[in-house]
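ingest -> validate -> predict -> emit
validate: passed (alphabet ok, no gaps, 193 aa)
predict: started
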Amino acid sequence: MTANTELRLSIFQNEDMKPTFHSIEMLRAEHVNVLRACAEGEAMAQSLLRSENVPAEALSALTRFFVEYVGERHRRKERDMLFPIIERKHGPEVLGHSLRGHEEGCWWIRCLRQIAQAYDNGCVAAGKRWVQTWTSYSTMLKSQIEGEERLLYPLAEEALTPGEELALCEAFEETDREADERIGYPAGKSEAA
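emit:
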C-alpha cells in the first residue's frame, strides 16, 4: 500500500469528515493540461492562418499529446473506470454527451494526425486544413470538458463510495504507469502539456 493510499484510507475512516475525491481531482488536473494544450493549438492555428511558418514537428507533437495523454490516459480513466460507476448510480443517459465526445475525439485526432503528416510532406493546403480540423476538435473538446466538470464530476463525487474512490485512485495510477511504459517515459516522469 502506498503512502497516498494510506492517507486516503485514513481520511475515509473518519466519518465526520467529508472525503476528498482525489480521483476526480486527478481528472480535473488533466483537464487543465488538456486546456493548456488547446491554447497551444490555437496559437499554432493563428500562425497558420497568418501564413507563418509552423514547424511540422510542432503539429505532430501536439497531435501526439492528444493521442498519448488524452487517449492513453485521460479518456481511458473516464470511459473505462469512472463512467461505469456513474452509470450504475445514475443511469446511462447522463453519460451520452461525454461518450459521444470521446468517440468523436478519436476521429478528430486521427484526422489531425493525417493532416500533420501531409503538412510534414509539404502539402500546401494542409496548414489551412489543419486549422479547420483543429478548430472543430478544440471546440468539441472544450464543450465536453465543461460538461464533465459541471455535470459528471459532481455526480461521480456523489456516487463514489470510499472503497470505490480508493480503487479508482489506484487504477488511475496504474493506468499512468502502463501508459508511461508504452510511450517510453521513465517511471514517474510523465510529460504534461
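The chain has one domain: 24-180.
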